[in-house]
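Standup notes
- HV: blocked on the assembly model, inputs below
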Amino acid sequence: MISLSGSDAPKAAAGASVAPAEPPAVVVEDLSITYRTTFEKVPTLKSAIVRLGRGEKAVREVHAIQHLSFEVPVGTSLGIIGANGAGKSTLMRAIAGILAPSSGRIEVRGRISSLLALGVGFNSKLTGRENVMLGGLAQGMSRAQVEERAEQIAEFADIGEFMDMPVITYSSGMHARLAFSVGVHMDPDILMIDEALSAGDAQFKVKAAAKMQELMDSARAMFLVSHALGSIKEMCNDCLWLHKGKLMKHAEPEECIAAYTKFLEVGENAFTMDDL
Amino acid sequence: MAEHPSQRLDTRDELHVYEATRHGLPNIPQYFRELMGRWPFAAEFSRSSIRAANTDTVFGQLWLILNPLLLAVVYFILIVILTGTPISRGGPTLALICCGLFLYTLLQGAVSSGAGSVTGGGALISRMAFPRLLMPFAAVRTNFFRFLPTVPVFLLMKLILGGEYKLNLNGVETVVQEAWGWEMLLSIYFLALMVVFSAGLAAFMATLQVYFRDTASFLPYFLRIWMYLSPVLWPAIKFGPGDSLYHVMLINPMYSICGGWSDTLLLSTVPPLLVWVVGTAWALVMLVVGSLFFMSRERDFAVRI
């Protein structure tokens, strides 16, 4: 199904046999992300004062990513797998520039369109078209550029007259279809997809897969976070396996998935004893 | 900027570098270049929130005028009864209240909706990368456009109710004249100061709100008390140059900004130089302090909301 020559691409780029002058699309160097978050549901001044009186602290440090380094050469389609809380989404958000690194460095070449942004649903009282406009402008496109794409987006999402209805009236399938359509029509240089492949019905899935394939040919790199190991194996030519913020394996999808599946079956303790 | 749909955007060589600056400030010139570049987003965000609130319908517009007008009537009744204002001063007093109150409503609205702009930003904040300062600034823009329709209402009130009355200032009987003249145009400067000041304060409050979600509950009280301390419901000349409290009054940014506004727009007089200087300084200081505070914290927002 994949026209791209499987797992050869990253190796070829790394071996500098293809376009040696072209720098990698994404470089992550010794990245750590630690954030402080409160365990209060709603932090208030009142509770802060009460806590001060009792001498308690309400902030907790989360080490979401620890000392991660990797490169994503142009042409890579990188799958990211791992259990819940592995830091997959944190990594994606850091590469998209939403979260700041605590230490280390990220270099990104090109415009990122992240399907985690989902382009719609910012204001459910506004129509689909208005939400598309907001999402596009927030990504730094001009009004004219978004207007041009709005038609293609509406056509691809195939939600008909709902495009001009408030988003609050959408079914969840329409929502997901429009979101997918926005993500893939923003001319991304780097596309990020976070668990969004389940968008829409079977017919739409086929269309979505074809569109992703087309994008793979024009985009410089793609990131795919998914628990659906099958689609990682099918769509990616390189793979990262994260666990609790640490890089467990960076290899070809088959190898990563095999290790990860073994890990899941055997359980953490057995695995670490066996392997480390 | 129009281009052919099939033409790709040339963004392939845009290099973005993200490094650890969580507790510091980002590169400020670059930040502001990006801020200006994304302004269309803030404008659209503000426009769409106006649309979503139905303020572009006839009744929506009417409410924008009715709301401050009714508030003015409430304060008018309060003041006339409490101070025993003579009937002859009733009309000019109502004009005075409208003049100050309409502008102060701009500050109130901008600061309270600005304070909630980040915590209410939802998916935009947690899933998209853009200069977050656009959020409070968009709230200020929204409130500016909500303020504009009240200007002609005030002018009409001044035309019908405005006049002259006598005021006892430090034992000297002074005639206050609500006049029309070219000086009224100078009020635009004080409106600009108010917008700049509001933007700074909205950014400041938006940051506080992320860490203390009850900020928004305190704000109305804080803003109400501030209003009573500022020349909104009373004329600035009550504590004008010569009054022993004049220099104390200047510590309040709203004394020079609201005072300058009603001096020019209501009385057609040119305020003293000190009012211009202090008002400008306050507006700029608030904008810089509010924005820097916001920017030093904004990369923390995505995990805090």
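- HV (later): unblocked. Residues 234 and 261 of chain B are 13 Å apart (CA to CA). Chain B has a mean pLDDT of 87.
- Next: hand off to the docking folks.
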